[in-house]
């Protein structure tokens, strides 16, 4: 079958290991099902994989992609849940020490077909297109869990979203607004700040700018470049929810004195449960909020999408279609 996969790693030139070609069809074991992929979306995770982060050499060649929407074996329209827990695991699958994401241990979604455990599909409402639904399993699910599960935010709270242009960040802005939060956002790029306002941010700022108010919570995916600003933007007792470190994890100053003196909370967040994904789908169906799509490309032109993400050009999600 057609597939977009990683054949080798390069930290400096990740696209050198990307192949657009053919891979064997999936052979689902007992309890698994095959989804015919109609649309899939790109995440920074896919670039990390090509850099050799989170993917082992022995696992190559590996079809990339965590996110997909398509048809299950009975012809139902479904969204794929990308977190694969061990058979027999009970409870929150993001806490399973042996969990993996599609494209880490099991083949990913940038292909004609992907196999997943039967429980790893969620019905797609007719109100969402395949392209929109394909944006949800990683970036949007992560944003949903950061705000409403790990962050525990409620209507009327004020949140700061760092790095407004990212896939997770645009989801945080849209979902935060729809959830009744006051949304502040930063971006390095003036055009991205403008677009963040159009998307629903109440106020936007240059990265690192002093804010007029202290916020209840900061949503972090940038890491090193914004960490200090995130800490300094919080009210006493405020919280940072962190799910990524795009600019690197090695902060020069973790601001530990402020952390204890201001009684701040630092909360990690990774992906979400199947239940979170189902709630997210329902929220979109009920509110009319839709993922912001930067561009849609045929999967045969996946390289163009990877290059745009590597250059940080996108605003919103990059989607591949069959
Ligand atoms: N834990 C999880 O489950 C999970 C799930 C999804 C994603 N993630 C992680 O979250 C991060 C974001 O993912 P994504 O798919 O949203 O990536 P993305 O679309 O590539 O977004 C990254 C954003 O970070 C900002 N940024 C990058 N470098 C920066 C710098 N040096 N200074 C300031 N801002 C910078 C940029 O915003 P501006 O250009 O607007 O400033 C950029 O748009 C990645 O590290 C990813 O691995 C984790």
Account of the 3D structure:
With 322 residues, the chain is an alpha/beta fold. The chain folds into two domains: 2-136 and 272-321, Quinone Oxidoreductase, Chain A, domain 1; 152-268, Rossmann fold (3-Layer(aba) Sandwich). It has nine helices and 18 strands. Strands 3, 5, 6, 9, 10, 17 and 18 form a seven-stranded mixed β-sheet that branches. Helix 6 (227-233) links the parallel strand 14 and strand 15 (234-242). Helix 3 crosses helix 4 and helix 3 packs across helix 8. The chain starts with a strand and ends with a strand. The site of NADP nicotinamide-adenine-dinucleotide phosphate (NAP) has 33 residues, from helix 1, helix 3 and helix 4.
Rg on CA atoms, Å: 19 Å
**End-to-end C-alpha gap:** 12 Å
Look at the helices and sheets and give the structural class. alpha/beta
Mean pLDDT: 97
CATH superfamily of the largest domain, by name, is: Medium-chain alcohol dehydrogenases, catalytic domain
Features:
2 domains; 6-stranded parallel sheet; binds NADP nicotinamide-adenine-dinucleotide phosphate; Quinone Oxidoreductase, Chain A, domain 1; globular; Rossmann fold; single chain; alpha/beta
Short summary of the structure?
This protein is α/β, with parallel strands linked by helices and 322 residues long. It has helices at 44-50, 130-133, 136-150, 167-178, 190-199, 227-233, 256-261, 274-287, 302-310; strands at 2-6, 18-22, 32-41, 62-63, 67-71, 77-80, 83-84, 100-101, 113-117, 121-123, 158-161, 182-187, 203-206, 215-220, 234-242, 265-268, 293-298, 317-321.
